[in-house]
Write a structure and sequence with these properties.
This protein has an eight-stranded mixed beta sheet with strand order 3-2-1-4-5-6-7-8, sandwiched between helices. Helix content is 52%, strand content 14%. The protein is built from eleven helices and eight strands. It binds NADP nicotinamide-adenine-dinucleotide phosphate. NADP nicotinamide-adenine-dinucleotide phosphate binds next to helix 1 and helix 3. The site of NADP nicotinamide-adenine-dinucleotide phosphate (NAP) has 26 residues, from helix 1 and helix 3.
Length: 264
């Protein structure tokens, strides 16, 4: 049975640990290292896991999760100062490349992931890429950890994590913007803002739930769009105003920025 240590006990670590314990991970196989005593106490109390304040305490675990801000990773590697061969390093730090991680931690198994904020609710959509030193068993272990807080998509090349950033990493914000605009437009059409908000939120939830049942989104859309009807009028206005282009350009800009930040 693997043991797992989290370096950093913040929001993401708490969400992942909650998911792991709920999916049957023995809490005694989980350790969290965090400088903040309150943070450690809260996680120990909530989940019954081990905690530590010294990063060196993480180095005995089979799987080490880097759950700190990207700018802290180099300091963590220095504090670790241990032979990590045979272990799996799983990084959730946005934009920190495999090349950087290998420079810091050595030629060991490294899983780089790109999670998104709904992970905090167990509804994450995460991209996973593993380096050549990772065995299939280790990749499956990384996938199982990710699936404790949502879905996992393994990508074949590291650069595709930038496309994952464009789809799911930044994706929640696109939906928030759509929700904002629908509330604004509904209010402009005369609804009280709280009604526009309640109707918009429930519609977003209902549409996402229907789409998640498996029917193609085009098919679902066709079913609610009768020729020359009300939905048809809205969809035509969206398409005539370049909705598809707007989305494609936004996601390309996001991918390009992720690439750029990865080179810094
Ligand atoms: N939040 C998200 O939805 C999300 C999505 C995608 C990716 N990520 C990535 O996930 C990572 C963690 O994000 P988060 O939101 O969980 O951050 P967070 O809440 O700030 O958690 C980071 C924790 O690490 C602690 N820490 C700092 N230096 C440390 C060290 N040397 N050793 C051990 N622990 C240390 C911090 O303590 P102090 O507060 O005392 O410094 C804090 O408790 C980031 O790299 C981020 O890019 C997050």
């Amino acid at each position: 049975m693997d043991t797992i240590a989290f370096i950093g006990g913040g929001n993401m670590a708490a969400a992942i640990i909650g998911g792991l314990v709920a999916s049957g991970w023995e809490p005694t196989r989980i350790t969290v290292v965090d400088p903040n005593a309150d943070q450690r106490d809260r996680l120990a109390r909530e989940h019954g896991i081990h905690t530590a304040s010294d990063v060196a305490d993480a180095t005995t675990a089979d799987i080490i999760v880097l759950a700190v801000k990207p700018q802290v990773i180099a300091a963590v590697a220095k504090q670790m100062n241990a032979d990590l061969s045979g272990k799996l390093i799983l990084s959730i730090a946005a934009g920190v490349t495999i090349a950087t991680l290998e420079t810091l931690f050595g030629p060991v198994a490294i899983a780089r992931t790109m999670p998104n904020t709904p992970a905090l609710l167990g509804l994450g959509a995460t991209g996973l890429y593993v380096n050549d030193h990772t065995t299939e068993a280790q990749r499956l272990a990384a996938q199982a950890i990710i699936e404790a807080f949502g879905i996992c998509v393994t990508v074949a090349r590291e650069d595709l994590l930038d496309a994952v950033t464009a789809v799911s990493g930044s994706g929640p914000a696109y939906y928030f913007l759509m929700i904002e605009e629908m509330i604004r437009a509904g209010t402009a059409l005369g609804l009280p803002p709280e009604d526009a908000m309640a109707l918009t939120l429930q519609t977003a939830l209902g549409a996402a739930t229907m789409a998640a049942q498996g029917d193609a989104p085009e098919e679902l859309r066709a079913r609610v769009t009768s020729p020359n009807g009300t939905t048809h009028a809205a969809i035509v206005a969206m398409q005539e105003n370049g909705f598809g282009d707007v989305v494609a350009k936004a996601m390309t800009a996001c991918r390009d920025r992720a690439e750029e930040l990865g080179r810094l």
